[in-house]
Amino acid sequence: MKSRDVDKPKNWARALSLVTPALLLVFAWTGCGGEGSDNIQDDTIVAEDIPYLGDNEPTSDEGGGESGEPVLAKIGNRIVAVGEKLVIVLSAEDPDGDSLKYSLYGTIPPDSTFDKELNTFTWIPLEAGLDLFITFIVTDGTYVDHETVEIKVVAEKMGHPPVLTRVSDRKVNVGQTIKIQIEATDPDGDVLQFGIAGDKPADATLNSSTGEFIWIIPAEVDQTVVRVTFQVSDGVFQDTMPVQFLVGDVGSPPEFTAVASQQVAFGTQARFVLEATDPDGDSVSLAVQSGMPNDAAFDPATGTFVWTPLEADTGRVIKVIFVASDGVFITYLEVEIVVVDPAPAIGCEDDIFEPNEDYPESVEIDDGTYELNICDSSEVPDDWDIFTITLEQGQTLDVTVTFDHLKGDIDIELIDSAQEEVLTSSTGVGNVEQFSYTATSDGNVYLLIYEIGDEGTASDYTLQVEIADTPPGCVDDDLEDNDDVGNATQLTVPQETLSGLMACPLDDDFFRIALQKHDSLTVTVTPSPGVLHAVLLGPDGETILDEENMLTSTATLTVTDVAEAATYYLHVTSYGQTPYTLGALVTPLQYKWIRIKDDATNQSLVYCYWNPGADIDAVELLRSGSGIGWATEVVATGLGTKCTKNTAADASKVTGPADETSFQDPNNLFVSLNGGEILVAFGDGAGGLQDIRSGDQVRVTEIVGDFSEFYTITLCNDSSCSVAVELGRNKGLATFDITY
User: pTM of the predicted model, to two decimals?
Assistant: First the structure.
């Protein structure tokens, strides 16, 4: 249970309703600061930020918005591969320290989850080619911040560079403290590091982890233009961005005129005109920097933007960044266009229980099914429903609310009689919210039903209430009592599926899976129907490795490449009576390559014939004492170059059977490693490579007539030998046992 201000849902619902798809076009100005100020110029450059443009700049604006507004941490567009687990954890800062609530809307995949307690969106896509738009929201009950994220699903993912949020050139003065929050996003979700390319200005600092740039303008740069090139890197790729600081009376960047807000229905032309002027009287050119829709048009000469979105664009939020330049300095303007359905707002009539927006007005209900709605009407402009339910100790209350999530996200909560504590809740993002609660004492409880949806529209819902004198009959499955780690049910490896499982109220189900070193485990849990909580635990039975909370559809939990052979645990609990299916798949690390490394050094030419180092004729894989294949693939590394029979091309002669005729046979010469190494793999006869199993043997052939030299043999998982198991050292014809 958790304690909070139970009046908050009303404010949350209203605040969040202001940012659903009826959003207006929003503009954001990353402009320059004013002149003549000795205060701190503090610009957090975010999508919705409109930095202060006047002469008296604010001394503190950590969030980049007005005082008291929460600021959602930048997320950025994402690219995810089929089968890859995408996790987006939302975070935000509120200058007043208010309690924050998170939500989302848009094209939400049915097999995704959004945990409103952990502020976490999770999805494993199973199909390439999808292109989704999801808007994430944070509110303190009064103010709202949000970001629309495009998620692209690809068959295979390659690395992508991070992207810096553009920052305009700006005027500053000697002695002024400049504070800019440099922000960037990465499509792969990589950890980013910030820096400055070239020399850093005197008296300036940049936090490489957070991107916070602070600079106290020194006197020696007065009446100059200081160019600072910011950069961000994900460890492989980087993005750079120059920003010019105009110190003193050395000119001014262009300035944009504000754009009127508007919403755009598909099939309707979006049209607005940008205007930008230069305080110095210089001519200003306009251009699009990024985000232009394919079928949109922009006339730089007149500043006119025109776009008619298609029906397929409904729900999308398009961010177009424009740039104004006077030939030397630049200013950016971001315009956000929200495409909505042109259908008129749905009219609604208050349901029979209105008004019931407050605890004194709550309506008492009992067992039954009720057809109701959340309806913002002239009589009830801010609708949310509160019901009183009387329970006796030991009675069980089951509540189910069914609705269309596309018309609004409905959440439900059960509040104690003192109106101080949330007894239970259901805050998913699907079409059903439900919970079960067993009364611990006689008295009243309050059922709160509120919507995160469009302002001025209606969301019909069906409310089902069931009250039982005793907890509803829940028949345990055949695996009970598996209520703790000590009694956990053993799952068969490498793969097992258990159906017909039952999680009863307040029941704990534990399962154990034995893993070997380097194994990977994938567990799927599917409630049908109901709400579950699933946790993957480490060998101590306590350390959380992966977790899915409030899951109403199939969820996947994983742990990869375990560091030790041990028993791992799965813990499943229910928020009610929930049947479910469980699947477990253990994937061992697969070894497919053998590395043979010569112990000798690169020989001189005079010893090349008589002492060439290890000269390998063939390599064979044996299983149960019988040969199952000769080497079919070979990779040579670091072979010597002084022996004529010792080139990388000769490495291929190690494939196939041994040279049984003569080591001088020109059609099948040995490969002389001469201080280098080769990696070989064995074909499986179907175009792939054999798995090399524990218990197999590998036989290395140096036939009579060759000069036997020592070599070391190692088992590898891939051709780069990123995971290696040394098998031994020998010379000549030798057989090695494979154990791992």
Answer: 0.51
